[in-house]
Amino acid sequence: MGELQVEKHVKYILAVEKRKDDFESVVMEHLRLNGAYWGLTTLDILGKLDAVDQDEVISWVMQCQHEDGLQNEDGSFSGDMWGEVDTRFSYIAICSLALMRQLDKIDVGNAVKYIVSCKNVDGGFGCTPGAESHAGQIFCCVGALAITGSLHHVDKDLLGWWLCERQVKSGGLNGRPEKLPDVCYSWWVLSSLILIDRVHWIDKEKLAKFILDCQDKERGGISDRPDDAVDVFHTYFGVAGLSLLEYPGLKPIDPAYALPVSVVSKVILGK
Ligand code: 3PZ
Ligand code: ZN
Predict the structure, then answer these.
(1) What is the pLDDT of residues 66-117, one digit of tens each?
(2) How many A from CA of 163 to the centre of ligand 2?
(3) Which of 24, 39, 117, 194 has the fewest beta carbons closer than 10 A?
(4) Which ligand is nearest to the CA of 235?
């Protein structure tokens, strides 16, 4: 498996950041803000955030801001002006408002009620009421409930059981029964298990080995599973997963906010 190739991954992230005009970047245009978050947070966890020009990043991010937003009558959130509803958007709204200390701008009780209405009999959560449980959606719902101090709505043993069953023979985690393991589920599943205090129900060492096996050891970057093509998304969630596993030399990441603990304490507690 080898060690985490910190320098290679830093080089890879910086190369993707520079390559803004090629084909892959044009296809990924709508994801650029996500890409900035994945790339910058990876650099921070690796202790290499000073490799980017902060003022340049800030002025670019500020160009992306719109006037409008927010919450529907039933407590749910829409992703954009077209109105699609999904618990992912509840998480994003709650997480961002908490970071800005502006949770009082929405009806938090109603937002929590909507998330709880997406809970299933298997203990998991879906994107809308009645929709199938999925690990990515579970992270969004459990994360939002954690941030709002509402984790008593989660059946921890039942959900913990469903989540730890996501670990397959190779040590990797999948997102739903019968699916292949994928590095990004190291984040969705592991962060949820930590938030409900059931992380000791999986084999952490085997999971770390699976993530390390997904590195491109020559060119840097991490893929979804061993020997696939790398991307910024799986590089971030791989490094973030290793941080949750307390891999040596990495900054700790907050499992609810999906940001370095240092960032969360700085913006929420003012240091
Ligand atoms: C990936 N998106 O819909 S996407 C994403 N997926 O925009 C970004 N694990 O084909 C990258 N799968 C790579 N760089 C993949 C973001 C998806 C998640 C796909 C994926 C990840 C397995 C199939 C949804 C936050 C934001 C968005 C998502 C999840 C979490 C794709 C396919 C889909 C997408 C982008 C590229 C390469 C990168
Ligand atoms: Zn993935």
Answers:
(1) 887 788 999 999 988 888 999 999 999 999 999 999 999 999 999 999 999 9
(2) 16
(3) 24
(4) 1
